Amino acid sequence: MAELFPDSLLVATDSVLDSLEAELLLLQGASDDRVFDAVQRVVLALNAVNDEHNGGAYETENVSNCASTSTNRSQSGESTSLL
Question: Are the CB atoms for 20 and 38 separated by under 8 Å?
Answer without folding.
Answer: yes
